Amino acid sequence: MSKKSYIAAIIISAGLAACNRGPVFNVEGEISGAEDKMLYMEHSSMNGVMALDSVKLGKDGKFHFSDSRPEAPDFYRLRIEDKVINFVVDSTETVNISSDYNTFSSGYSVTGSESNVKIKELSLLQAELQSKVNNLYASGMPAGLAQDSLQRMVEGYKDNVKRNFIYKEPDKASSYFALFQQLNGFMIFNPLSNREDVKCFAAVATSLNHRYPHADRSRNLYNMVIKGMKNTRTPQTKPLEIPAEVINETSIIDIPLKDINGETKHLTDYKGKVILIDFTAYATQNSGSRTLALRELYNKYSSQGLEIYQISFDIDEHFWKTACDNLPWVCVRDPQGSYSTYANLYGVKALPTSFLVNRNNELVLRLDEKSDIEAEIKKLL
Known about the structure:
This protein is of the alpha+beta class.
């Protein structure tokens, strides 16, 4: 084969490979002050974050990634260490992102997509809210006052996002992004029990389903709305009665349930620790503020031997996984919900319901609204 023929064959092969791959999108730009740092591009899929590509940055900080373009808007992120920039790929062929290593997540600029400008605004608003919450709990304010302040912060945030993002432009990918923002690992908008939040999800679901009826995200959003509407209209089923002697049993009854990774976690595996057993549902009205309060307790006492074994009764498995993905304690789910064998054995008649177990795997206390949880935990540590 002649030299010209050989080169022509390479060009044709490259062209065929590009055709077989189909349409692609590009992400490019530069990150200053990040020489020799690894930059990752990741897909924020419905099943979790998936690595796609990476590059070691040079002195000029320039980078370029490409991947197959999704059929419907989908979410991705750039990451250096634990710093993240979220972005969406919709109809745009190329997204340009530039930033500095020291202000990677907050000081970046993005061009090529109006939705990505909005996503940046939302990310900065969420970061500001998270900072305020962290400062609130560091202030030493009494728990009751702190919870009231937290509630006002969150409601103010939600009102702002509803008015200026979700209801203003429900057909934008940024509005979908807003629905799934989190605070300390808990979803800020609650689509399964909060009637007003269900309306937000319904507005975006209607627009998304109209434009992309076959997309997985469209179907999932629609299903969440249907479940939320049913939950906010139908009164909860009253749990079965359980004899008092079973509730007062000293030794704990084992609970073997699966976590978000599909691994079975036995309650009895944590003998030697003080265990807070917590029956809950992340879709309940006050779960957000309560989860934050539990996180404070866990951060404060886990090093001294406290473990939280949290059993979720959430109906929607994807919502449950999303809600507890970043929580540091043991999170399992009972798909039987209020009909759960374990709920009946432990006498759970309402959510949340909690118990304390001492280091000998003995059930010592059923907590109620008047219980000083921190004081009771300290007695057992």
